[in-house]
Amino acid sequence: MTYGQILLFFFMCWLTYLAYWLLSRGPPPSIARLRPPIKLTDKFKNLTSKKHWARGEAVKVADDGTHTASLSRVAGNIFGEAANRQCIAFLLPEVREHNPQQRVSVVVDGLRIGQLSARDLIPFHVMLKDAGLSAQVTSCDAYIGGGGTALDGKKHPYSISLDVDWFET
Fold first, then answer.
1. What is the mean pLDDT of residues 30-36?
2. Bridge partner residues of 141 (DSSP)
3. pTM (predicted TM-score)
4. Cβ distance 165 to 55 under 8 Å?
5. CA separation for the pair 27, 47 (Å, rounded)
6. Which of the pair, 53 or 34, is modelled with greater confidence?
């Protein structure tokens, strides 16, 4: 065997392996399967606030991972960039008859991105009742940060913090 025949043999083996690898992956995913459109619900599109909370301490928003698609759309970061956005968040108390501990959803741009943590529910409900706004929509300043992709390919979680002073009258 000559040197050229040996190179041709290795090239044919590599080409066979490449064909096997491409065929074993299946068809490429369609664009529609990559990112399904997020449907906006009508009840979150035109929220009006009865009270805007003053700036105070940074309150973390609990995110259990179910609102990540909405959060990435609201954050506006693309191609692995970290998010850095200041916005107005609406706090929407959810009324439930059988549960005394009500959830408070955090809505930005018509999309639900998380909920208040259990630690912050008590002062929120107390100050809402003191203001005479029981189960009303309120708003506050919010910051969305984090996200993006690290150099090793791992995705960073988003960080949502509300800038509120619950004890402001």
1. 52
2. 88, 163
3. 0.68
4. yes
5. 43
6. 53
pLDDT of 40 > 80? The answer is no
Q: State residue 129 phi and psi, 5-degree precision.
A: -70, -40
Length of the chain: 169
Instruction: Say if CB 130 and CB 166 are below 8 A apart.
Output: no
Spatial neighbors of 58 by CB under 8 A, at least 6 apart, are: 143, 161, 162, 163
Tokens at 120, concatenated: 């912050």
Average pLDDT over residues 124-152: 84
DSSP the chain: --HHHHHHHHHHHHHHHHHHHHHHT-SPPPHHHHSPPPPPPHHHHT---S-BPPS-EEEEEE--STTHHHHHHHH---TTPPEEEEEEEEEEEPP-SS-SS--EEEEETTEEEEEE-HHHHHHHHHHHHHTT-TT--EEEEEEEEE-SB-TTSPBPPEEEEEEE-TT--
State how far the Cα of 8 lies from the Cα of 150, in Å rounded to an integer.
40
